Alpha/beta hydrolase (Nostoc sphaeroides CCNUC1), 326 residues
Amino acid sequence: MGTAIERNLLYLPADVLIKNITHNEYHQQKIQQMTVTELTWKHEYITTNGVKLHYVTQGEGPLMLMLHGFPEFWYSWRHQIPEFAQDFKVVALDLRGYNDSDKPNEQSAYVMHEFIKDVEGVIKGLGYQKCVLVGHDWGGAIAWNFAYTHPEMLEQLIILNLPHPAKFAQGLRTPQQLLRSNYIFLFQLPWIPELLLQSSDYQAIETAFTGTAVNKNAFTQADIDAYKNAAAKRGALTAMLNYYRNIFQQRMLNPSWGVLEVPTLMIWGENDTALGKELTYDTAAYVRDFQIKYIPNCGHWVQQEQPELVNQYMREFLRTKTNSIY
C-alpha cells in the first residue's frame, strides 16, 4: 500500500530528468525531505458556528486556508501543505460533514450561508483577520461565495476547477453542461445515492478518481483507501450528498453577480469531465484582478494530478501579490 510519504512521490519533475537523476534516487531524496516535513503536520480541531471542524496544519506566518471538494477531505491538499508551509501557516480543513469534522443530521445544515460562517469562524478562531483562501470543487464554490460576502477578510483567492457562480449558472442552461452535471440530479434522490456510493466497497468513490483522472498514477491504492475510509465514517455520505440536495435553493446559482475586488487566480485542468472549459471563459468580467492558468492533459483533480505545476502557478501568483512574504 505504501506510506503517506511514498504516495507523494509519483511524479518526476522535469528538472530531475534534466539533471539525469534516476527515479529511485529522486524517490529516496523526497522520502527524506517529506519525512521531516510530514512529522510537523498537526491534526487539530476548532469549534465554530456550532460545529467542531477538524484540520491539518503546518508552518507559521500568514494564514493560507484550503477547502477541499467532493468526495474528498483535507488529504486532497497533501502535495500543497508542505510546499506552502515554508511561508504560511497552512490550514487544510475538513468541511462540515466530511471525515473527522462534525456531521449535523439536518439537511438544512448544509447551505451556503452556514459554510460561509464556518470559514469566517475558522479564520477568526485561529487569530487572523485575513487569509489567502484556496478552494477546489465544492471548496471552490464556498471560496467564491465567501469572497463576495467577506472580501475584507481575503488577501488573495485561488480557485481550482470550479467556475465563477455566474458562469456555472449560465452553463446549467446549456445541454452540454446539463449532461456533464447529470449526477447532481441523481443526488437529489433520498437514500438511493448513498446505496450506490457505498456498494461494492465504495467502488463509486474509487471510480470518481481513477475513472476521470488523466494522470492515472496520481492515485495509489492507499490514496483511494483513504478517500473510501473517510466516506465510510458514520453519517458522512449523507452529509456530503446534502451539499447537492440544497444546491438549487442556494444563491450560488443566481446568475446576477457583481465585480469581485479580491485578486484571484484560477487554475483549470482542461480535461475535467464534470465541468467544461468553456465555463471559465469571460470570468474576468466578474473579477477586477483576475489570472487564469490552464493545465492540459489534466482532469478535475488538478492539484493531485499535476501538483508541481499547481504549486508553481500558486507561487508565481502569490509572489506578485504578497511582496511582504517573498
Remarks:
- Residues 1-36 have pLDDT under 50 and may be disordered.
